Amino acid sequence: MRLVALSASFVLLAAASAFAQAARLSGQAPRAGSWEIGGGVVYIQGFDMGDQSADLTRPGNDTLELFTTSSELKSVVGFQGRLGFYFSPQLSVEGGVRYAKPKLSIRITGDFENAPNETAEETLSQYLFDGSVLWHFGQSATGGGVVPFVMGGAGYLRELHDAQELVETGVEYHAGAGVKIWFGSGGQRFGIRAEGGISVRDGGFDFEDKTRYTPVAAGSLIYLF
Amino acid sequence: MRPWARLLTACALVILAAAPVIGYLKLGSRLGSQTVTLRWRNFPVRYFVTDRGVDGVTAQQFQTAVTRAIGTWHAVETATTSSQFVGFTQAQPGGDDDMTVIGYQSRPAQNRTLAATSFFIDTTDGRILESDIFFNTVFPWSTSESGTTGRFDVESIAVHELGHLLGLSHSALGETELISGGRRVLAAESVMFPIAFAAGNIDDRSLKADDIAGISDIYGTPAFTRGFGSISGRVTKNGQGVIGAHIVAFNPATGRMVGGFSLSEDGSFVIAGLEPGPHVLRAEPLDDGDIESFFDDSLDVDLDFNVKFYERAVVVPRGGGTRNVEIRVTPK
User: Fold this and answer.
1) Domains of chain B: which residue ranges?
2) pLDDT tens-digit profile of A20-60?
3) Measured between beta carbons, which residues in chain B are less than 8 angstroms from residue A114?
4) How many Cβ atoms from other residues are within 10 Å of residue B29's Cβ?
5) What ipTM does this complex have?
6) Is A2 exposed, middle or buried (0-12, 13-18, 19+ CB in 10 A)?
7) CB of A154 within 8 A of CB of A171?
8) What is the CATH number of domain B229-329?
9) What range does the domain containing A152 cover?
10) How many domains does one find in chain A?
């Protein structure tokens, strides 16, 4: 997807540029009691929701396929905001909200009476409210400009269909890794954050009621205070 | 003056065409400018079975098959219906006798009608007072558990006719082909399809999603009202409403299909009894059966348009309805 590729490139370029600058900056590490706030974009990979045929019963345990559908929840770029709290330079917890509008796409083909193929679509509003625990590496008492981290957590998934008259909910678990690049060295400073990982969703909107493992990637502007 | 009058038989049905508040094709009657749904108000429906058997089927076997068939409708969890077999009778189906009678009759003049249902209704509110079903002895019958080649299955045909008895009309969820002397059904996804499968077939002993939606639409439980929804809208051609279009709502999650019709001049339709979630809509001309199988001849049914899928997925809310869908079809 072009939009996704562009977003990813932006994050990588920004990260590379900042890396060179940040490498020269060695600042004070976030201390216990520091807060971090951030917001940015998130890419959520879609998933296939399977095929289904509109079967009419034929005599003799046979079926006549009136038409078939192939359904997919499309990949999407959404937005996220996060607020974190540091218990130590290495350990922080954060809560966040993610919003995206993925498209449900249903491809209809093979009509018995030769109706033209069609793709029926619908847009969902997807909200994720989650909490995470982060462990930062290489963040000594003197701090560091480039800080890799790993994270894991869980969340509550809430999806609303087009007219917002039907709500589907589920739980989400995630794990990932990323890097924070801080600009400056004070106790209050800006930085950027890039991360990637796997989001495991159980529930929410799905034709097949399966547990879904979807890659996610995000880039954010962050502020430490 | 008696408050009721003989209304119709199941093969010449009246449909609800005035206010499209329902989607499934139910039996109805016009009362002045109003249209009322035909339905039983008092349960259990008390029915008699004629004490006549035919070659291969005794009266007792016939009654057992009929009881199983009506039990199939009573087993629908989202609808509340019940019945009671009162006993055998010498009364004939079709008689004006305040008895609901199901049984064999010889109707050689109706040599393409396997069975039919007739009603007496209260013309003030559409309440069904009496309904009779005859099975035509012109045809060979069977009550064998697995069906008998060359003989029509009493239970399968009874399920269809008892659907009429409870207030359902015909469904158009099926495909047919023209053969010499009539139409042959290729496949169907409703026991209420007006053309039966060939002799020996027993597929219509089981209800399909379309049948369950229909009966639940008439006699739905509170859980049905809360848990299911509807889609309403119009079928149009060149900006004008299309009358008699058959619209199928397909659930891509479950594969279930429920059909409805556009019944008024503005092409309005409602399909009720749908599971919550996204649905695909397909509109087609009613060309898989005789029009008279579905509507009375006052409806000017339009067959001149191409089959069309609606370009959006339509989400059915739980306990509510999605409105204002417009399916624009094109002339052939």
Assistant:
1) 4-213, 229-329
2) 344 444 456 788 889 999 999 999 999 999 999 999 999 87
3) 307
4) 21
5) 0.88
6) exposed
7) yes
8) 2.60.40.10
9) 2-46+78-102+124-224
10) 1
